Amino acid sequence: MLELTEAARVTAGIVALSVVAIESGGAFMLRIVTGREQVTDFQRRFFRAGHAHAGVLVTLGLVCLLLGEATTLSGFWRWLAQTGVLVAAIVMPAGFFFSAMGRGRQEPNRAVVLLGVGAVLLAAGVTTLGVGLLRG
User: Fold this and answer.
1) Does the keyword field hold Membrane (predicted)?
2) How far apart are the C-alpha atoms of 73 and 56, rounded to whole Å?
3) Is 62 a member of any domain?
4) Taking CA atoms, which of 36, 45, 83, 86 is between 20 and 30 Å from 120?
């Protein structure tokens, strides 16, 4: 059986509870697709992408958190391997949502930069984890 550190156990618990926030995003998406929330086509696409990224990246982040326990990484590198994807799970959806906010918006605002920041965190996290797993 996989033995979790205290930090990993607490992080996993908090992340599991964050699914409720993602679920509320699903309720918002339901209002959009049923026409009860008026948005532009651009906003509909970005809100959908933000919601999807949140769900997928939280799931992947939990897997990375667990797999990080099987590495010999330490310090910053262990943190990055175990939580880089979880940070990306916040930053990337925020980029989609915040850059599409505002009545009638047709194109992203400057918050779109968060998408790139999240992508870098995602790549750094999974790359560090992969190297850590291969090294043992």
Assistant:
1) yes
2) 25
3) yes
4) 45
